[in-house]
Design goal:
This protein is α/β, with parallel strands linked by helices. The chain is built from twelve helices and 15 strands. The protein binds pyridoxal-5'-phosphate (PLP).
Length: 379
């Protein structure tokens, strides 16, 4: 039997992407920048609202880096960062010669725990250094506890960068993720809810900060007819071709969100009668997740000993991709010497959790194959 692979999350084109690319070719807008970049930025700006400006960049990682630069993070500074995330949330801190300080998650949203954050802020201040920024992540599309996080940000006067790489379209109290603080970031990497093949965006609070981001992203060219530079620059802008894909993807974003959410409800049904398996879901009506990835936690004490790894291997046997939840940053060899505040929430999520196929392009046949694995293992 040669079954095709069911991926966790694969690119899903709407059809019109090629139209925007062809227009770029017809007009010879192959060089960076051009009408697709402006159009994509406008589409994103209209979508996220809240008076935000958007700079289209080559990746979400680049967007975090430019946010840190604009917040003045430099050599020897400390930045508080959610531990339970992908390494790209934390890596740019080190690009600036700064040090990450990791914070545990809470159990409701799996995102930054406000109690641990407060503990971390106070401990670092006592230690002699007030952190320069807070990086909070809306992981798997689930909005973080933004009221509590922003309250601490105001109380201690530490700016927040919202990593909404996985959360385009998610809302907290009807406000889009990525728009709560001075800077938000988005990713259009190949596995995200929409993709530009590779790309990202910085969500800014003013025209001025957007302009600054674009300045740094295009090698920090001073306003002169010759090449003049007073700052270190980067080559971080999104190309006009990639932005063309983005414009086509924006036409199907709402539909992709609906389809990802449908996958979440499919798993809710599938696991409804299986004791010991918890499907990750919104804590209450304040939270609206795009359910970029559907995820479960498995408690072997309630499943007759079946654990996360047993499930992952059963899926693998049927050529179905699933993956353990993110390994927390404070447990990663590269960050082992960084300070950490909190308990074992992120660690136990890593031990017990599994991400399941969640793409907006999955078919009924794919869902049947997934169901059959679960039925077989639990019968
Ligand atoms: C939580 C999170 N932050 C940051 C990134 C970085 O985005 P990019 O791959 O576009 O650099 C990603 C995805 O790759 C991510 O999942």
């Amino acid at each position: 039997m040669n079954l095709s692979k069911i991926w966790l999350s694969s690119p899903h084109m709407g059809g019109n992407e090629i139209k925007y690319i062809n227009t770029a070719f017809d007009e010879n807008w192959i060089a960076p920048l051009g009408p697709n970049v402006n159009g994509f930025e406008q589409d994103l700006k209209d979508f996220i609202g809240n008076g935000k400006e958007v700079a289209a960049l080559s990746s979400g990682t680049a967007a975090i880096h430019l946010a840190l630069i604009q917040l003045g993070v430099g050599l020897g500074d400390e930045v508080l960062c959610q531990s339970f995330t992908f390494s790209a949330s934390a890596n740019p801190i080190t690009y600036q010669g700064a040090k990450p300080v990791f914070i545990d998650s809470e159990k409701q949203t799996w995102n930054m725990c406000p109690k641990a954050l407060k503990e971390g802020i106070e401990a670092r201040i006592k230690h002699g250094k007030k952190p320069k920024a807070i990086i909070v992540v809306h992981l798997y599309g689930m909005p973080a506890l933004m009221d509590e996080i922003m309250e601490l940000s105001t109380q201690y006067n530490i700016p927040v960068i919202e990593d909404a790489a996985e959360a385009l379209g998610s809302t907290y109290k009807n406000q889009k993720c990525g728009t709560f603080s001075n800077f938000g970031i988005l990713s259009f990497n190949g596995n995200k809810i929409i993709t530009t093949s590779g790309g990202g965006a910085l969500v800014c609070s003013s025209e001025e900060t957007k302009k600054k981001a674009v300045f740094y992203a295009t090698q920090s060219r001073d306003d002169a007819p010759h090449y003049q530079h007073s700052h270190i620059g980067y080559n971080y802008r999104l190309s006009n071709i990639s932005a063309g894909i983005g414009r086509g993807q924006m036409e199907v974003l709402e539909e992709h969100i609906e389809l990802r959410r449908k996958m979440h409800f499919f798993y809710k049904d599938l696991f409804a009668s299986i004791e010991g398996i918890q499907v990750f879901e919104e804590p209450n009506a304040d939270f609206y997740s795009n359910h970029w990835l559907s995820a479960i936690t498995v408690n072997p004490e309630l499943t007759n000993g079946i654990n996360r790894e047993d499930l992952r291997l059963a899926f693998e046997k049927e050529n179905i991709e699933s993956r353990p939840l993110w390994k927390p940053m404070h447990m990663q060899p590269i960050f082992k010497d960084c300070p950490y505040y909190g308990g074992n929430v992120a660690k136990s999520l890593f031990n017990e959790g599994l991400c399941l196929p969640s793409g907006s392009n999955l078919t009924d046949e794919d869902r049947n194959r997934i169901s059959n694995v679960i039925k077989k293992i639990f019968n």
